[in-house]
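Quick sanity check, DSBA-like thioredoxin domain-containing protein:
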Amino acid sequence: MAIIKIEIVSDAVCPWCYLGYRRLQKAINLYKKTYPGGSQDNFELVWKPYFLNPDALKESVLVQDRMNSRMGPEKSAEIQKTFRSIGMREGILFKFNGYVGNTKLSHQLLHLASSKPLSSETSTQTLVAEELFRFQYELEKDISQIDTLVDIGTLCGLNGDEVRTYLEEDRGRVEVEEEEREVKASGMKGVPHYIIGGQYHLEGAVDVSDFFDIFVQLKEGKKEE
């Protein structure tokens, strides 16, 4: 049995990160179903912070307003249409009538979740990451708000009171900011970014086959040792 570690550098307000994660899921499932002995291998996902807009104010704004101000209404509508089309193929119902704000608290929630023991094949941190994407882009919730993050934490098995206290007291901020600085200092300039097995790097919402091929290379490389 092999353990394949995948570090995912991401920000929940990035639609490409959501798409990339869904493709990663498909690649893992395909590997487990089709590669000889793959069903016995485990994948360890570790989420790393990246602030797409580190200077964003705490007061969130409408996604539509943000997109329109950056690229104009016509281009914004075109991009939203593209994401809806691509998203449908990945099982994502992209919506763009929610809010977007500072994402530091969402990364602090992920940091809290990373400290929880593994109770199933999917870690609490990954469950939280999934819900952050879903709340942002399918439920059109404001993930910069503590109330929303408490709801997400509770859905993922965390204690709601613990989550609220953790975020209201701004715990984990120093650790998250330091980790994010290290990520950018390593040369990463955008997300999503994947570090697989500590040696293979992929950038962007790459195809399922790109992930799968690396899984096979890692597995067969171990066989040759």
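Posting the structure with no commentary besides this: Strands lie at 3-10, 42-49, 61-62, 99-100, 193-196, 200-203.
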